[in-house]
Amino acid sequence: MANLDTRIALQRSRFTLIQEATDLDDVNAARSNRQLVNARLDMLEQNWNKFQEEHENLCLSVSEGLSDNSYMRERVYERCQAFYVYARATLHTQLEEFDTTDRHSRSTLSEQGASASLMPRSALPRIKLPIFFGDYPSWRPFYDLFASLIRDNPALTNVERMHYLKTCVTGEAARLVGNLSISGDNFAIAWNLLVSKYENKRFLIAAQLDRITNLKPLKTKNAQGLRTLLTTISEATAALRVLGCAVDSWDLLLLHHIVKLLDSESREAWEVKLGLSTTYPTFTQFEEFLIGRTRAMENLGLTTPQETPAVASSGKYCTKVAAHVAASASNSNLPACPLCGSSHHLARCERYQSKTANQRRDIVIKHRRCFNCLAPHPAKKCNSVKRCLKCGKKHHTSIHEIYRESSATHSPGTPAKKFANQSEEKSDPPAPVV
Questions:
Q1: For 321-344, what is the mean pLDDT?
Q2: According to the UniProt record, where is the region Disordered (predicted)?
């Protein structure tokens, strides 16, 4: 019976991954990144194949107790199949949009070029181009779109191409071509400078390998950390596979590296699972272990609140019911959302997303959140390497408009980020009583 429960728990974990296949952190970024969509599609197919295969094995090998199990009563297979069909259709639609956009852009620009005498060229093209910040992982998506819409557009002059190029690069990429003026002769020079620096398969591969090797070890047992670890590894290996790397033969090295990143309890659980086996495990086995453990930890985090003794102001003991978030805090490093109390990041909260930029700023200040990652610590203590997706500066994308307005309205001598310091001027909240 225990073996059946374990197998069904793995099935439910795969169901969750399939259900979340289209739940991207940044939908706009995904729609402009063909490699990311392909990687998500590969992961979806792998999870569905494993789910389908295990479902057939359960039906063929398990007869006693299966029909009465909630797995069958809740029609998990049928529901998972519906989510798989929806996710697969959604991801394929996004891939088709890339091709449709390319064809439509070429056709439209060609027609407009033929009728240039009737339509001013300055109106072309009316397509929002991607911004390239100078990071290797986003180079290929930028290259494909810019080359298709601008570089290979016969209706544009090199002067116009140079203008579009300089407006589409920022950060290190902008500094690379910053000394070149906007002229027809300089476009080829600027484009070749970018290509020679970033169209480097060795560096593109290294960027994905860095995502793997730069993962930080988990200090405590928490479901979110394990899920992030698994997602990062899966996405990086999928991108490396697209770049032609023989990822499937890296099981030994990958597994050896990732196991060292686990917290002590998870690592012990992995060794217990291996038991007396003398055969080196595969990455697939380790992946299934992480999925099952993450699922189990998430389920434990949903237990009912426990009554805990607390000291009243008079010094006598009284009983109070601990909040749901406090009950699950020991199992997860993911703090409770300050707006709705659910166990998710503030940026994922629907209430937070529905607010204006000014209201979001006020929420961050009120709840003493970091302006860079929205975590419950001062911005000056933030160790996150993530930056704003729109400008690359050290603040969260959700409050980018505030920084943009502040930069536009303040003089050089005025502290444009004054409001960001308001949360740091307040004293840190007291440590929770355990």
A1: 57
A2: 404-434
